[in-house]
Design a protein that fits this description.
Blueprint (H helix, E strand, L loop, with lengths): L2 H13 L3 H19 L3 H14 L4 H13 L3 H14 L4 H13 L3 H14 L4 H13 L3 H14 L4 H13 L3 H14 L4 H13 L3 H14 L4 H13 L3 H15 L10 E3 H16 L8 H17 L5 E3 L35 H9 L5 E4 L5 H13 L5 E2 L4 E5 L7 H13 L1 H4 L4 E9 L15 E6 L14 E7 L6 H4 L5 H10 L4 E4 L6 E5 L2 E5 L13 E7 L6
Helix pairs in contact: 1-5, 2-3, 3-4, 4-5, 5-6, 6-7, 6-8, 7-8, 8-9, 8-10, 9-10, 10-11, 10-12, 11-12, 12-13, 13-14, 14-15, 16-17
């Protein structure tokens, strides 16, 4: 007898037990549920297990044990138990639904879809199953099916505010902005304090050009969740689009301040050795240049001691576990804004006035894929100011396994000069940027001993990537820049699929099957690469000198959204 048949036989035996057994099992399960609901998990498990021991293969006991395993994070065990329950009672919509919940949480999206679809087949009016199915499909970027599923759920329960909001998200991804806005407004009508709907409404309104209405929506979101970093960031973008750079920087600064520690214990349980090395080098430079006083030398020493200790303990790893006691010495300064260099607007402009605008636009628009480079992008004084800001400002808080550090608009990277450059580019090259506005900007600072940014695409329309480290730092003039592939990320892939280190094997496999060719742009200081942001790209091989002033620094400006032409 195979395993499945054995389970079914056990289940039939469970159903045909004595009335006394049935009463006892029912009592045990009810007691277990009460314990479960009260958070008394050990007692609940004892009751469920006693019921299962009394009637082996009892579907409900297995199901409840599965829900208990799910609650404590044992997803694989939960899946096994609920699957056994389904073997005994294959036509239970509830069991299939909960199997969907568990597999969804475990990241097994295709299994979750099959489970929800089975629950719906058994009960076509199962609203929660329809909603969850829609959410999985939306996350997988199967937008047509997700939208259809959400609408089926809303036909059964039109008062479900979260589903109206999620429908709006899917519609916006399809650039159906008017319909998305209507969905967000309906979610808000049903639930006036719906933070996500207010925030999402603001984003959709921005894309329609209704900046003032967008700002009002974001303000409503802030009234519900004060100091929300993502809403403050969105307000910064909206202010920037309205030409209010001072207001934008103020909002971005609020985000940065909220993100970082202000003394006290460090919460991290693991640190990147590359980050410790960078912070030690940067702090030493700031002391040498008189930006910080000599009292910070103890901080440098503490960073170096910790990095040496981690290198000895984990010689092949970058991200290393750290004993909380070992963090005490760096805690007062780590993740602090110790210094920010000035980076102000230039009265007579930041772009090189000798750029051949027409020739550059013609190169970009006249070839497929849309890729071109611009040499000597900035005036020397703009390049120097940006480089000094990046070298001296202690804003490099986002670290990656590949050894590079990131600084984003909401990390303190927003400066008057940066926003000036972004706006001047848009105005100088209308044929390239069209109506696309700046949506994100960052800088990456590379550890020369590590490999750099892996292959990915970005969720924007136009990407500007430019480099500010002097050429003499680059030991291989033919490399060190950017590799752009001539294939766009598939339209049905979501952000996690085309912009994640974990998905690199899938990306490479897809590019190979698509016969992708590469365009290699060698590194040059003050060179920009302008390209369709949907194209896959990655950092070229990096062989820069291994000292702080020679770290490769690139700045990225993203304009518009992926769904826009």
């Amino acid at each position: 007898m195979n395993r499945s048949n054995r389970r079914r036989q056990e289940s039939r035996q469970a159903k045909t037990g004595s009335s006394a057994d049935s009463f006892a099992v029912h009592t045990l399960l009810d007691q277990g549920k009460r314990h479960h609901q009260a958070g008394q998990l050990a007692e609940a498990e004892r009751n469920y297990q006693l019921a299962l021991n009394m009637v082996p293969g009892h579907p409900e006991a297995l199901h409840l044990l599965g829900l208990l395993a799910y609650r404590v994070g044992s997803y694989d065990h939960a899946i096994e138990l609920i699957t056994q329950a389904i073997d005994g009672t294959p036509n239970s919509p509830l069991y299939w639904f909960n199997l969907g919940v568990v597999t969804q949480r475990a990241g097994k999206s295709e299994e979750a879809i099959r489970a929800y679809e089975r629950a719906i087949a058994l009960n076509p009016k199962y609203v929660d199953a329809l909603i969850n199915l829609g959410n999985v499909l939306k996350d997988l970027h199967r937008l047509d099916t997700a939208i259809e599923t959400y609408r089926k759920a809303l036909a059964l329960n039109p008062a479900h505010a979260d589903t109206h909001n999620n429908l709006g998200v899917a519609l916006k991804e399809q650039n159906a902005l008017r319909e998305a806005i209507a969905s967000y407004r309906e979610a808000i009508r049903l639930k006036p304090a719906h933070f996500e709907a207010w925030n999402n409404l603001g984003l959709a309104l921005m894309e329609t050009g209704a900046s003032d209405e967008a700002i009002a929506s974001f303000q409503q979101a802030l009234s519900i969740v004060p100091n929300s970093s993502k809403t403050l960031y969105n307000l910064g973008i909206a202010a920037m689009w309205n030409g209010d750079h001072t207001g934008a920087i103020a909002r971005f600064s609020q985000v940065a301040t909220a993100k970082h520690h202000h003394g006290g214990p460090i919460q991290e349980t693991a640190l990147f050795r590359s980050r410790l090395k960078h912070d030690a080098e940067q702090t030493r430079l700031l002391i040498e240049r008189g930006r910080l006083d000599a009292s910070h030398r103890s901080y440098v020493d503490a960073l170096e001691r910790l990095e040496i200790a981690l290198a000895a303990a984990y010689p092949t790893r970058n991200r290393c576990p750290v004993d909380p006691a070992a963090l005490t010495a760096i805690a007062p300064s780590f993740n602090q804004f110790l210094y920010r260099a000035p980076c102000e607007r230039l009265a007579d402009g930041a772009l090189n006035p000798q750029l051949d605008i027409q020739a550059i636009e013609a190169r970009y628009l006249g070839q497929q894929p849309e890729v071109t480079s611009i040499d000597q992008l900035l005036k020397p004084e703009a390049l120097t100011a940006l480089r000094t800001f990046c070298l001296e400002s202690t804003i490099w808080k986002k670290d990656y396994e590949n050894g590079y550090l990131g600084a984003f608009l909401g990390d303190g990277f927003a400066t008057p000069l940066l926003l000036q450059i972004a706006e001047e580019l848009r105005r100088a090259f209308p044929g390239i940027f069209k109506d696309h506005r700046l949506t994100q900007a960052w800088a990456f600072k590379q550890d020369s001993a590590r490999r750099g940014l892996s292959i990915h695409a970005d969720a924007a329309a136009v990407n500007v990537n430019f480099w500010i480290t002097p050429d003499e730092a680059n030991l291989n003039p033919e490399k060190g820049g950017l590799v752009v592939y001539d294939k766009e990320a598939p339209a049905d892939w979501n952000f996690a699929a085309y912009n994640s280190e974990q998905n690199k094997p899938k990306i490479l496999e897809w590019l190979t099957q698509a016969g992708a060719q590469t365009i290699r742009v060698p590194y040059r200081a003050n060179r920009a690469v302008v390209f369709n942001s949907d194209l896959f790209h990655e950092t070229d091989d990096v062989t820069f000198r291994d000292d702080y002033l020679s770290r490769r620094i690139n700045i990225t400006l993203l304009y518009g959204y992926r769904h826009q032409a």
